[in-house]
Amino acid sequence: MKNIKTTSLPVIGAIFLTSYFLVGCQKQADTAAGFSQNVSAPKESGMKIKSKGSIAFSSDRDNNQDIYIMSAEGNDLIRLTDHSASDTYPAWSPDGKKIAFTSDRGGNFFENYVMNADGTGLVNLTNNPALNDFEPAWSPDGNKIVFTSRFRDGNDEEIYIMNADGTGVIRLTTSTGIDSYADWSPNGKQIAFASDREGSLQIYVMNTDGSGVTRLTNSSGYNNRPAWSPDGKKIVFTTARDGNEEIYVMNADGTNQTRLTNNTADDFSPDWSPDGNQIVFTSFRDDNFETYIMNANGTAQTRITNNLGFDGFPSWGR
């Protein structure tokens, strides 16, 4: 079992530890036929592309977990939430006008909320105090949100969709294990997610009605947090197949799995820039959880936060 640095992470509840810190791994190659893998990461050099858009992230720099936004260069920091509870997992709406996020401000359980991009207009979308609902992600048209819920229908973690106002909740997955970390494809036809239905956490895709489930990864270590590229051709994800968490990218059909980060610290929670030229992620490489950006091929890895607290779970908006 891999010993991940759980004491350094923000305290955001056992629900997140259940789905994030799962299953150790050994240093073995990807063994499934048809799943190609390139394990040599690019060097951390190269010209950085000029960054555009705003990055939302979760930070405990002010003693509790809140949502912040900053420019893609790490400037113009604005705190959007200010609550004694934990606010985390922000997700920009496609039009850049709203941010969905997860919070336990309503009590002992986590719910999904949405607010305007300036922090106003807060609305509880799931509003069920007996459940844990978390990890929201928007449909490309902004009309629906996919999310993970724990024990809503008796199972551990399953994936659901709802309208952007919280109505019309529909369950998509029905496995007995964990189905989590969902992300909607840019064409609106598929959802990528992580599941341990066949052993360790692996990346899958399915249709938006839950049908057509297809496995994309088959590595010895766990895989999670898939994120579609804006053009829908690639999926970036976190994997522990090399002994610690690193960021890989693959084609949308699971081929050409290529390592982007390569260091002894954990790199995780990637997301794409709106133009697809860069990737934002969280890393512990400087002995603290900070937010970094890199070019889409893994070059020019650059730290954009510098704080003693946790700065992570980024979402890159317009």
CATH fold name: Neuraminidase
Question: Largest sheet, if any?
Answer: 5 strands, mixed
Structural class: mainly beta
CATH class categorisation: Mainly Beta
Q: What is the 3D form?
A: globular
Average pLDDT score: 87
- Count all strands and give the number: 25
Order of helix and strand elements from N to C terminus = HEEEEEEEEEEEEEEEEEEEEEEEEE
Radius of gyration: 18 Å
Which stretches are low in confidence, meaning pLDDT under 50 for 5 or more residues running? 1-45
For the record, what is the CATH homologous superfamily label?
Answer: TolB, C-terminal domain
Strand order in the sheet with the most strands: 1-20-19-18-17
Helical residue percent band: under 10%
| Tally of separate helices | 1
Q: How are the secondary structure elements laid out?
A:
Elements lengths: L13 H7 L16 E2 L15 E6 L6 E6 L6 E2 L7 E6 L5 E6 L7 E6 L6 E2 L7 E7 L5 E7 L6 E7 L6 E2 L7 E6 L5 E6 L6 E6 L6 E2 L7 E6 L5 E6 L6 E6 L5 E3 L7 E6 L5 E6 L6 E6 L6 E2 L7 E7 L1
Describe this structure as you would to a colleague.
This protein has 318 residues and is mainly β. The chain is built from one helix and 25 strands. It has a five-stranded mixed β-sheet with strand order 1-20-19-18-17, with no helix packed on it. A hairpin with a 6-residue loop joins strand 18 (234-239) and strand 19. The longest helix has 7 residues, at 14-20. It is globular.
